[in-house]
């Protein structure tokens, strides 16, 4: 078992007993187990917040983070918030002596501070923008981010998976919730040489990660939410869905104000992305291998939800191959993308916001999608009770 594994959540009979079996599985399969903060007084009720791609918040208080902090404060120790990657745009946390270090810290600290002193737990999952370049530079960037989160956030804050490992890393919260964290950017990078996972990681190959994931998903009596940066499905640009703007003004995807018309030539950009040229897009070969491998681990024990960011939209999807997919990547006000329906779409929005899952001891979990306005007010745009996901198909 890796040295960074801890086998219990302080306090709460369910947290200790629930992790006993996982600790044994960790020794056999390399599942990393994180220690959570003390559970609330009523462990049957938990609230999980999901927000992604919040790595470029407006100075002085981004409206989405303002709304999130208000929600977290109202629930206190019953709340857990997961930031679903791309926590620092555009290229992670550089060393102190590099240009951009102070601004990168401000962007990360704004997210950490949204949960500070509320009593809520806060978890950060790394995204592609958090891995700065290739080789050891990317790994060191992720480790710097982890240290900042732990130092500033204290015992209620965690960066999962830890130490640049691919995961899965398990966190049991209270008596009803299990979070299973994967670093999906690991799948889209080279696995050897300087990009190889650290030796202390419990899982260091694709086969080991999937074997460990199968174990982590087997959580009798708990609702499992798998947390990653990359989703398996999307109705946005990463899923190959483009609007007229991308064909006529493709440069606006990189520079929002650069409305330079490139008719004809501009269509090459979305067509190349639809063809899978870029690894960060769902149609690329590395991405397809990743989602197929993860889907194979979900079939016997599908989680309550697969939560991810990456796409700057809000989507709720139910699919026979991937189960319930929640895409919550609109964590910065105004930083959103066009979105279309895909197979199994139940809700889609191009507005900024985040998601909330209320896990009530007296009934089914309940999903709420919240959209946030410029002044920081939020509204419920979608709400649904969440039934257990049936066994999944073997054909994506």
Description:
- It is a single chain.
- The protein is α/β, with parallel strands linked by helices.
- The chain folds into two domains: 13-237 and 281-385, Purple Acid Phosphatase, chain A, domain 2 (4-Layer Sandwich), CATH 3.60.21; 245-274, no CATH class.
- Helix content is 26%, strand content 20%.
- It is built from eight helices and 15 strands.
- The protein has helices spanning 13-29, 63-75, 101-115, 135-153, 206-217, 244-248, 268-274, 285-298; strands spanning 32-33, 46-51, 79-83, 121-124, 157-159, 169-173, 177-181, 223-227, 305-308, 314-319, 323-328, 345-349, 353-359, 366-372, 378-385.
- The strands form two sheets. Strands 1-6-7-8-9-11-10-12 form an eight-stranded mixed beta sheet, covered by helices on one side. Strands 5-4-3-2-13-14-15 form a seven-stranded mixed beta sheet.
Beta-strand portion reads 15-25%
Give me the Rg, rounded.
20 Å
The CATH architecture of the largest domain can be given as 4-Layer Sandwich
- How many E strands? 15
CATH homologous superfamily identity of the largest domain: Metallo-dependent phosphatases
Q: H/E series, N to C? A: HEEHEHEHEEEHEHHHEEEEEEE
Number of domain modules: 2
How do the helices and strands line up, and which of them pair or pack?
Elements: H1 13-29, E1 32-33, E2 46-51, H2 63-75, E3 79-83, H3 101-115, E4 121-124, H4 135-153, E5 157-159, E6 169-173, E7 177-181, H5 206-217, E8 223-227, H6 244-248, H7 268-274, H8 285-298, E9 305-308, E10 314-319, E11 323-328, E12 345-349, E13 353-359, E14 366-372, E15 378-385
Parallel strand pairs: 1-6, 2-3, 3-4, 4-5, 7-8, 8-9, 9-11
Antiparallel strand pairs: 2-13, 6-7, 10-11, 10-12, 13-14, 14-15
